[in-house]
Design a protein that fits this description.
It is a single chain. The protein has 34 helices and 26 strands. Strand 2 and strand 3 form a beta hairpin. It is an alpha/beta fold. The strands form 4 sheets. It has an 8-stranded mixed sheet with strand order 10-17-16-12-13-14-15-11. It has an 8-stranded parallel beta barrel with strand order 19-20-21-22-23-24-25-26, surrounded by 7 helices. A 5-stranded mixed sheet has the order 1-4-5-3-2. 45% of the residues lie in helices and 16% in strands. It is globular, with a radius of gyration of 31 Å.
Length: 849
């Protein structure tokens, strides 16, 4: 990394020691006069520096202030310069702020940023800074602000920290966003510094953008190093995380290579149509008019405000955007899968980038508004990423701009606009220069039937999401795309990556015929998906889907879902800035029941706490939220959350078909909790004259599993959350970067807790379902059915594979499989039971399709 270049003069004449100004304004004028005398500024710039104090606080902290002029007065700066006024006794700057070192800045460009870097480093060295406050030699102050003493540039191997290891990048596509996010998460667990060096380039391993800007490719040699008291442990942890990712990265690359070897065979029109060629991103054929969305760079107004107010606004925007991305990642995981959700998890890491935030703060200190400063910092970082030669890394510029736009909308709601708010009511092929991943994930599939972008590539996150959504798409179509007139009739082939324009009647007939052939083929597949999960000897297992919103139900049903086994109501709270009203919740539950048309719906009451936090609820901070006030514990302590939800649910029950709606409560540990919640339900049901509905509980803690026989007398059903049950049973935080892989739900201890729950429920004629992760794994589903689980609920895309596995088995064989699993000593031994089974490979393949 190149050393900073200080392009402002550091002269003894610009340093005044032992000053005794009567107040803040006098201190500014005294420092500014040094700049006037040196010919750096016009005398009128002194008043500009005074005016700046009215709109921004230039006190940096630790006794240092940096007065400077208004942005619009830069023409009064004749040449770059800084003046240092030392005030040993201090001068009151603002309320409870005392300045002892006043660094007046005159800069026509970004030269002052270097000064800020120097001061930032100095403020981290409190002993040295205090010495400067009383120094009697100007050379000490000049030296502290000079390049040689403030920040010596590391050279080659000398830049490595105390503990290190060398590694050759063996990720086929290099270090891209998702593995880099895992590196960052592991590095942030370390108390000391962690860095990655490639040649002369050094990056902070706790900063995602810095890692990506290394542009690491397959075969590059890097040195990972750390310092601090736990340096050796940190290096070992980093090595483990980095090397464990190799297998997955290589497997993903191999799958992509196999797909690339398959010849691209798209639809061929019967006539010679004009076409715009791009790159196929998502297969399928779409017929309709094009709608072009022109996305000009946002004009972000510069609205300066005090550093305190601007900093608070930026902090709040970052915090709310993190929560928004967490909700989006969770929602995407349920609808599309964990790999797609990782897109937004990686985006959230960008918000922790220290360089990005520091650059924003520096611009704010200069006097710019928080929105303008953030936008400039994001664009600078995105431009650096886009310039990288690795196309996978260059594509991450779109992710940075996407997350930047989200934060910007939080800082300044007037910039909340978006690219997709003016779509026509009739279905169209959406044309854009590019689309962000979040825009793609949120497309209205009733109005957008195809997608074509001028930029992007098949490895972009937008392309990945389009494929998962089943939306025909092409990318890299060039500027010709955005030059099309709205309404131009077209046929988009996402397989070959071509947009055919102005088709004839013969072309349209051929295209419709091709689509019908595909529809018939898909219908045959869906017919099998629609068959019940009935074993060869006649045992039926109900298959449900985990969904969050009514509009997700059709996709779930098309995949073969027979019910909604888990509606996570926390997403009604996570995806907004305030709590939904009773009426809003009622409308959502009613719409969900209507979409299911009499099929069963199990609604989980609000499950907040642990890894699901809602900022606008202002819940107290907990040192260990997974063991704190979460789930039912929170609901019983905050009736203002519980009662509106129960009222909305019982209102919906009055309009539902009998038996369609069930309610279950999360994080149940004691019988007292069940009794209190049932009493609340009985009271509200009586008030509303609503019908009784089945009440169940989540089995997520070992206590509930062990006490299942006692609890079953007081509930109508159990639903096991295997993710949390595994976490609590094995004492492993499933989000821990080191331990997450050990949170294996196929551990025999977890399986024995599941069996204990089933046995306890059987004694009282209650049924048990599972809505955790292993329900969607064909082998896991087979084990659960053999253990006596009656209902499985999962991500919709996992349903076909699970159903096939169960249909190709007998209950006798499944019970035998479960018995052998319970006798195993490790999770690996349990998994080994699946090796070589005839249907394991095909079922798993379909589940991943």
């Amino acid at each position: 990394m190149a050393p900073d270049t200080l392009s402002v003069p550091l002269l003894p004449d610009l340093v005044r020691l032992g000053a005794t100004p009567a107040g803040k304004e006098e201190a500014i004028r005294e420092a500014a006069q040094l700049l006037v005398a040196a010919g750096c500024i016009d005398p009128a710039y002194v008043d500009s520096m005074i005016r700046r104090e009215g709109v921004a606080n230039t006190f940096l902290g630790h006794g240092v202030a940096i007065p400077h002029g208004m942005v619009e007065d830069r023409e009064l700066v004749r040449r770059n310069g800084i003046a240092i006024l030392q005030i040993p006794q201090g001068v009151r700057w603002n309320e409870e702020q005392t300045a002892r070192l006043v660094v007046a800045i005159a800069a026509r460009s970004d030269a002052h940023i270097t000064v800020l870097r120097r001061l930032t480093r100095l403020m981290q060295d409190e002993e040295r800074l205090n010495a400067l406050f009383i120094a009697t030699d100007p050379a000490l102050l000049l030296g502290a602000m000079s390049e040689e003493t403030a920040a010596p540039a590391p050279a080659g191997p000398a830049a490595d920290l105390a503990e290190r290891f060398e590694w050759t990048v063996d990720y086929p596509t290099g270090l891209h966003a998702r593995p880099a996010s895992a590196w960052v998460e592991a590095a942030r667990a370390a108390p000391g510094r962690v860095q990655i060096r490639h040649g002369d380039q050094v990056a902070d391993a706790k900063t995602l953008v810095a890692l990506l800007q290394l542009g690491l490719r397959m075969g590059d040699r890097v040195v990972v190093s750390a310092d601090g008291a736990e340096a050796a442990t940190t290096v070992a942890r980093m090595k483990g995380v980095i090397t464990r990712l190799t297998a997955k990265e290589q497997a993903d690359a191999a799958a992509a290579e196999r797909k690339a070897r398959v010849p691209v065979q798209g639809w061929i029109p019967p006539t010679a149509l004009p076409a715009i060629a791009g790159v196929g991103a998502s297969p399928g054929l779409a017929i309709g008019p094009v709608h072009v969305v022109l996305t000009a760079p946002p004009a972000v107004p510069d609205r300066p405000e005090s550093l305190i107010d601007g900093g608070n606004r930026l902090h709040e925007a970052l915090d709310r955007t993190r929560q928004q991305l967490k909700a989006l990642a969770d929602d995407t995981a349920r609808r599309l899968g964990p790999a797609e959700a990782g897109i937004f998890t990686a985006q959230a890491e960008l918000l922790n980038d220290t360089d990005l935030i520091t650059r924003t703060c520096q611009l704010m200190v200069e006097g710019h508004g928080p929105g303008w400063s953030w936008h400039e910092a994001v664009e600078s970082g995105a431009a650096a990423l886009a310039a990288l030669p690795n196309p996978v890394l260059a594509a991450r510029a779109a992710d940075l701009r996407d997350v930047g736009r989200r934060v910007l909308a939080r800082i300044d709601p007037s910039l909340r606009g978006g690219t997709l708010h003016d779509l026509p009511d009739t279905p169209c092929i959406l044309i854009a220069d590019d689309l962000s991943p979040s825009d793609t994930a949120g497309l209205d599939m009733a109005r957008v039937i195809g997608l074509a972008t001028a930029q992007g590539g098949p490895t972009s996150h937008t392309a990945i999401l389009a494929r998962t959504l089943g939306l025909p798409a092409m990318v890299a179509g060039g500027a010709a795309l955005t030059g099309l007139a709205n309404g131009t009739p077209a046929i988009l082939d996402g397989q070959s990556g071509r947009l055919f324009l102005n088709p004839t009647e013969a072309d349209l007939a051929a295209a419709h015929g091709w689509i019908e052939e595909q529809r018939v083929r898909k219908a045959l597949q869906e017919e099998r998906r629609g068959l019940p999960a009935r074993t060869r000897d006649g045992h039926a297992v109900e298959i449900g889907a985990n969904v969050n919103r009514p509009d997700q139900v059709p996709v779930a049903l098309s995949q073969g879902a027979e019910a909604v086994g888990l509606m996570r109501t926390e997403f009604l709270f996570l995806e907004r800035g305030d709590a939904p009203s009773e009426d809003e919740q009622f409308e959502t539950y009613r719409a969900m029941l209507a979409a299911l048309d009499g099929r069963p719906l199990i609604v989980r009451a609000l499950d907040i706490g642990g890894d699901k936090q809602v900022p606008h609820l202002h819940l107290p901070h907990e040192e260990n939220p997974f063991l704190g006030v979460r789930g039912a514990r929170l609901l019983l302590r905050q009736p203002e959350l519980l009662e509106p939800q129960l009222r909305a649910l019982y209102r919906a029950a009055r309009e539902a078909k009998p038996g369609a709606l069930s309610i279950m409560f999360p994080m149940i540990t004691t019988l007292a909790e069940i009794q209190a919640l049932r009493a609340a339900c009985d009271r509200i049901r009586a008030e509303l004259d609503a019908p009784a509905v089945p009440l169940g509980i989540m089995v997520e803690v070992p206590a509930a599993a062990v006490m299942a026989d006692a609890l079953a007398r007081h509930v109508d059903f159990f639903s096991i959350g295997t993710n949390d049950l595994t976490q609590y049973a094995l004492a492993v935080d499933r989000q821990h970067p080191e331990l997450a892989a050990e949170a294996d739900s196929l551990h025999p201890a977890v399986l024995r807790l599941i069996r204990m729950t089933v046995e306890g429920a059987d004694r009282h004629g209650r049924w048990v379902g599972v809505c955790g992760g292993i329900a969607g794994d064909p082998f896991g589903a087979a084990l659960l059915a053999g253990l006596g689980v009656r209902e499985l609920s999962m991500t919709p895309r996992d349903i076909p594979g699970v159903k096939d596995r169960l249909r190709d088995s007998s209950l006798t064989a499944l019970r035998d499989l479960a018995r052998r699993a319970l006798d195993c000593e490790t999770a690996d031994a349990v998994r080994a039971l699946d090796a070589g089974t005839p249907d394991a490979g095909t079922a798993g393949a379909e589940a991943a399709s």
